[in-house]
Amino acid sequence: MDNLFLRKVERQVRLPEAARAALGDLARQQIRHVAARQDLVGHDTGPHHAHLILDGWACRYRQFPDGRRAIVALLLPGDLCDPYRVHRIRADHAVGALTALTVARLAPEALDEAARAHPAIEACFRREMLAALALQREWTAGVGRRSAIERLAHLFCELHLRLAAVGLVADATFPMPVTQPDLADALGQTSVHINRTLRELRAAGLIELRGRRLTIRDLPGLKALALFDPAYLYWA
Amino acid sequence: MDNLFLRKVERQVRLPEAARAALGDLARQQIRHVAARQDLVGHDTGPHHAHLILDGWACRYRQFPDGRRAIVALLLPGDLCDPYRVHRIRADHAVGALTALTVARLAPEALDEAARAHPAIEACFRREMLAALALQREWTAGVGRRSAIERLAHLFCELHLRLAAVGLVADATFPMPVTQPDLADALGQTSVHINRTLRELRAAGLIELRGRRLTIRDLPGLKALALFDPAYLYWA
DNA sequence: GTTCCGCGCCAACCCATGTTAGCTTGGCGG
DNA sequence: CCGCCAAGCTAACATGGGTTGGCGCGGAAC
Questions:
Q1: Confidence grade of residue B1 (pLDDT, cut at 50, 70, 90)
Q2: Which CATH number fits domain B146-232: 3.40.50.620, 1.10.10.10, 1.10.3470.10, 3.40.50.970?
């Protein structure tokens, strides 16, 4: 199980050997397996560990008291979740596994120390934060101003690039293990409408989605429909 | 013109005298005035300065090629905008003045140095980032899953707390210089519907909005309607 | 002082998306 | 091998919020 975070990072900057080794060590400390639909971090968890996603998909979500749920971010293999310590009594959101998950649990002290010892690692963490922020802004803009079909198309373009950055795309095909109800919560719609919209995308010859795998049939078309501009993707 | 960022910060942690002085110096370097509706940072600006908002309101927004606009964040007095350097050719969004604005322009090198010299300042910057991220998540969740009236109510609750943290609230009344078209772009709606919804909130006796000032008539009622949970506000 | 334009405000109409309800399929536990 | 349940899929109907268009006001430019 190779370290996808490293692979993503080194698409941008070559790390010093010592930093690379330190990051590798970190990721090998404490491997945890989480079943699909389990929480990695609960709404009421206090200060907690950071996590590196090694395999599987997770999401950050917020559950409202009346049952509504909003998924505010998707976490893919190679994503580093909360590199900086959060000193809060109560988290503002939870992190849940969408599929079976393999993660490295990272002690905050170990991260701090690695960042202090290797400026390159500190830079990585910072970049990961800035990337998460830019991504979050794009999601806010999208839910606010994109139509249903544009949102879905945009998400697929985004996933395509993010997964390609960690080598999980082959032949314009990649895993898409997110169920329609989950997509609905991520895009601010209902599962019924997600289904309608998927049908439209398929009928337009833009995508093919079967058995948890997505194939993009017409990438330029999909990007045009989504008004996709990759400027916000830091690692891709 | 006192430094509102300092005031906000020191509600949480007492800074060492040297750090406080350094932050004060930073803010006094290069004061800039910007007219309402002008961009502080454009969509196509490359790496740029950081800004400390001293007076007035600004917003981060994204303009789509077809004219649609999404406001993804409001920047209030005391907010620190982009403390960490962004090494990108093209920004993913712009920052614009909603009202006449007074800002301190901060050179990235000066910030880096202050952060290196004073761990307390580094901690402040990091906290500002984490706060921005949490805020952005809440906005994403809101646009995705809250109804029109809930969104508006929620925004007012948020502004109430954020402005209170810098001492700009008196008698449950605070400045609200955002026009209805701007509110629409921030909440993912149209100005017509914002108008309808404002009327509803007024009719329900929850708020009063006159002459760019908002008075909250029934805070508990407003919070209940908005499903407001302040867990995501780091400074307030 | 006049002109103009952006904003607040409102009503009528309409459509994109939500709601409800049901059927089908496939994977999993027993 | 059976039963169960979550997810995919669809149709019929309902509605929140978008669209269009129009009025009046007040502040800024001249």
A1: very low
A2: 1.10.10.10
The superfamily (CATH) of domain A4-118 is Jelly Rolls (2.60.120.10)
Nearest Cα neighbor of A73 from B133, B92, B232 is B133
Q: Which of residues 45-84 of A touch B (CB under 8 A)?
A: 60, 62, 64-66, 68-70, 72-73, 84
What CA–CA distance (Å, rounded) separates A51 from A234?
Answer: 19
- Closest-approach nucleotide to residue B146, Cα vs C1': D16
Q: A99 CA, D6 C1': separation in Å?
A: 14
User: Which fold is adopted by the domain B4-117?
Assistant: Jelly Rolls (2.60.120)
Q: Where are the domains of chain A?
A: 4-118, 146-231
Picking from A140, A155, A185, A229 by the largest number of B CB atoms within 10 A of its own CB, the best residue to mutate is A140
- Answer for B198: CB within 7 Å of strand C: yes
| Cα of A210 to nearest chain B Cα, Å | 26
Alpha-carbon torsion angle B18, B21, B26, B28, nearest 10:
-170
Strand D atom within 7 Å of A38 CB: no
Q: What is the DSSP letter of B170?
A: B
Write out the two tokens for B194: 């914002």
Q: DSSP per residue over A192-232, as a string?
A: HHHHHHHHHHHHTTSEEEETTEEEES-HHHHHHHHT--GGG
What does CATH list as the number for A146-231?
1.10.10.10
Mind listing the pLDDT tens digit for each residue in A52-90?
999 999 999 999 999 999 999 999 999 999 999 888 888
User: Residues of chain A with pLDDT > 70: what percent?
Assistant: 99
Q: Do domains A4-118 and A146-231 have the same CATH topology?
A: no
